[in-house]
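sorry for the late reply, my laptop died twice this morning and i had to redo everyting from scratch. anyway the thing you sent over, i finally got around to it. pasting the sequence first so we're on the same page, its 726 residues, then the predicted structure underneath. double check i copied it right bc i was rushing
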Amino acid sequence: MIYFGTHRNRLILFLIFLTFLSGGVQAQANAQSVPVNTLSGGIWLDFDLEAEQTIDSVSIAWSQANRKSVDFNLQMSLDNTRWTTVYSGVSSSTKLEQYNLSSTQARFMRIQINDLTQNYKTLISDLRLNEHLNITPAVEESTVSPVTRNSNLLPVRNTENMIEIGFEQPDLLGNGLIKSGNAPTVVSNQSPVFEGKQSLRVFLDKHKSAVSNRTEFLLRANKYGKQFTEFEYGKDYWIGFAIYLDDNYQMPEYGDTVFQMNSRPDKHLGEVNRAANITMSITGNKENRKHGVKESHWAISVNGDDRRILPKTGVKYRTSEHDVLTPAAGDTGRWVSWVIHFKHTYNADGFMDIWKDGLQVYSKNGLRTSYNDDRGPYVRMGSNKWSWKTDKYVAINPARRLSYIDALRIAQGADRYNDVAPVRADANPDVNRPAVVAKPAVVAKPAVVAKPAVVAKPANSSFRNTRNLLEFGFELPNLTSYGLAASGNTAKVAGKNAPVFEGKQSLSILIDKNKSPVSYRTELVIGQAKHEKKWTDLENGKEYWYGFAVYLEDWKTPKLNDIIFQMHSRPDKTDAKYRNPSITLSITGDLDNRRLGVSESHWAIGVSGDGRDPLLDKNYQSHHGAALAPVKGDTGRWVRWVIHTKNTYKTDGFVEVWKDGVKVYNKRGIRTSYNDIRGSYMKIGSYKWSWKPKHSYPTTNPARRQSYLDSLRVAIGPNRYNDVAP
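ok and here's the structure:
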C-alpha cells in the first residue's frame, strides 16, 4: 500500500495490488482523495511493507533526475507514527541509484521529497528494497512550489548517525542551514575550496555588516533532526570541519569565536543566558596575557554544570576550562582541518579530544561538557566577535573578518574519527593526511596492554641503562643499589606482604606528619654520582618519557593536593629563589577541586614554564592545570602512568599523559621548563607541601600517606612509549 501526500494538505491514496512474477513485481493503482496534515514545502510517499522486515538498502530510479536534482529523505517506522530518518541525499541521474543503510527494522517506509523545483509527472520509475522488491507507483500530476536549485551538486547526506555538509547546494537553505546574525554565503569561483566545488564564505565588518558582531549558521531541525540539533546527553559526538582564514586575517585584540556549542537555558525555571558550553576561538591580546603566551593561539573553552537551576548572577561553573592549543600564526591563507570529539554530559564523566591537521593537540577527561537543561545544545559556526557589539572595546583597523568553512561532518557514536576527519584528494603536503586516518590507533594504544617485554622482565633484575633508557624494578635491597638518592625521608624496598606490580619487590613510600623525620616529603631522585648528566640535568629541546606504576593504600581525600611526581627546576642565582615545579602529577584536595570545578579528588596535571632570564616573579608565561580522572576507584590497586614531554622554555613544548593505557591529557604549544643554566630533574614519591611545619593548613586524620612505586622507567627520544609503559 502506498500513500502520496503534497504540501497542499491533500492525500492521494493508491491501493497497489502486487502480483509476484518471475521478472519482478507488477502494480496497479486506484486513487481517491482525502484530507491530511502534511509538511510544508514538499511531498512524500508512504509504503506499507505488510510486515516488519530488515532493510539494508533502498534503490530508486528518479524519472526526471536528468533535468533536476531531487532532494529527499528516507524514513522508517515500526508503527506509522514515529519516524526515523535513515538517509538524506540528492539524486544525480535517472539510473537506479542504491542507498545503503545500516540494517533497520521497519514495517513502514517514507520517501520525503523536499522542495521540488517545478511541476512534475511520474517521479519514481523504479524502487527496490534489498535489491528484490520492484514497485512502480502511478503518481498523478501535482504542483509543488518552485525553489531554485543547482542540478549538478554533491549531496548533503544524513546516514548512519552522521551528517555531511559539503556546501555544494547554492544557499544556506539548500544545505539545511539557517543564519544567525548575518548570513554566510555559498561561493565557488576563485574562492578557497577544500573539497568539491564550493565552500561557505563567512564575512563580518563591524561598521558595514547589518549585524556588527556575528555571521554564523545553525543546523535546521527539520532537516537534520533532534539528534544533531539538540545534542543527546551521555552520547559521544564527533565534529570535523576545515576552516580557511583569509591572507589578510589580522590577529584580534579580543578573541574571535569560530565554533561553539550553544546551550538552551531553562528560562521557564528562571535561568538566564550563560557561556557556551564549548567554544573554539582565536585568542586576542587580552587572552594571550591570561594564558601566558605572546601571540594569538587557537584556544578551547569548556563550561558545564550539573545543577538543575543555575544562579542568575555570579555563577562559577563546576567545569570551566580554558586552554590554548597551538599558535595561529602561519595558519592564514591555508586550510586548517579540525576534529573535535567529546562526550556530551553535565556529569564529571565527560571528556574532550581535539586534532588539528591530523595531530592530537588536546585531550582531557573528567569534564562536564554541558549544562543540566531540558533541551540539549546546538552547533553554531562562523565568526562571532562579542567585543564588536558596542564601541566600548578597541577594534582592529580595518574591523573586518573573512574566513571560509568546508567539509562539515558530525557523527554520533564511538570510533567515528575517520568518518568526520576532513580529507581531500589533492591534500596539501603540509597537512598530514596519513596521520589523520591512523589517529584512532594513537588514542587506543593497544600496544600498551600487550607489552610482552615488560611482563617478561626477570624478577631479580637490577636497573638497566641502555639505548637512552633507564629501568628500575626495585629488586635490589635499597635505593643506593640503583644509584637513587632520597629527598626527605628514605623510601624502603618492600617485598613480603607488600603490593608488587612486577617481580618480587616494590618501593614503599610513607609520610606520617607527626612521626616521620621529615613531616612532608618522601621522594627519590636519580643520583648524579652514578648516572650521566642527561638523566639528572635534562637537556633543553629533548623529548623525555616517564613510565611507572603507583599503588595508593587507603588514601584519604586531602585538604590540599598530594604531589606524586614532579620535574624540579634549578633557578639561577639571579632568579627568584622559589618557583613552581615545571611539571607535577598530583591528587587534588578540596581547595583544588573547587578551583578546577570538580566535586571530588582527581588526578591532576600542572605545567609551568617561562623563557625570561632572569625570572623574578611567578606570573609564568605558561601555566596550565587540568583534572585528568577521578581518584575514586584507584585506591587498593596499581595505576599505570606514562608522561611524555618536550623539555623546553620556548612555546614549542608539549605534555602527553596516559593512565592505564588511555591518553588523558595532550597539550601543545607550551613552555614546559624555565630558562636556567642547569636543566630540571625528576622527583617521584609523595610530597605534602602543606604539611611543612611553617604552615598551619588543616589535615586529614590520620595525617599519613602510604603508597608504593614500581616499574619506573625513563627514556630519551621520540616514540619510546612501549619502552617505558608499565
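Confidence is low (pLDDT under 50) at residues 1-41, 116-122, 132-155, 426-462.
thats about all i looked at so far, will dig more tmrw
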